Amino acid sequence: MPRLTTLSAVADTIVACERCPRLRRWCVRVAREKVRRFRDETYWGRPVPGFGDGAARLLVVGLAPAAHGGNRTGRVFTGDSSGDWLYEALHRFGFANQPTSVYRDDGLTLHDCYVTAAARCAPPGNKPTPRELEACRPYLAAEVRLLRRLRVVIALGRVGFAAWLAAAPPPGPRPRFAHGAVHTLEGGTTLLCSYHPSRQNTNTGRLTRPMWHAVFRRARSLLASAG
After folding, report:
1. Residue 116: what are its φ and ψ, rounded to 5°?
2. What tens digit of pLDDT does each residue of 6-39 get?
3. Which of 7, 47, 177, 226 is deepest in the core (most CB within 10 A)?
4. Is the pTM of this model over 0.85?
């Protein structure tokens, strides 16, 4: 992949990506067949780029677009229950202008925050293969390189956590994932860990609103201290 010099160039390259035939076939199939509740909508059906403020100090790294979320709307964490949790928290702590994200053009803007994912295509069963994650890694690395003011990273789930470490490997011992863990890395970046706000976690009580909000409250506090 050529060295990309702007976030918009990264986004354009992601949207045009054809690196993973299995994922491309799946996304196109889902976009064609749809589900009943969205049968009248035109699905995006392409890889989904990151979204947010190019001057962000906070980066949120998720897993992948949902088949009927980002793969439908064309914006990461938009149009599904995980996005409902994410953008509500970002709004609560001053990173978003509204608490919901329904469509790509619904007026949502992020302040001091950029949202991205380990994989850019919706994978079957929400499980990209290691090779597919590796194919997407240069895009995350490019975003990290271009987010020059980055100070805090929230990694959602073990896959988001591993993707961040692979794209921007810190020196020294490898941090361990645990919900609520805080890792101060060399260079001044702080890595916060959270369970992913998937239905599997939120519907079972493994991840509660207070647990979730505590992560974003810590991010806001860290950025306030950084000035």
Report:
1. -145, -170
2. 999 999 999 999 999 999 999 999 999 999 999 9
3. 47
4. yes
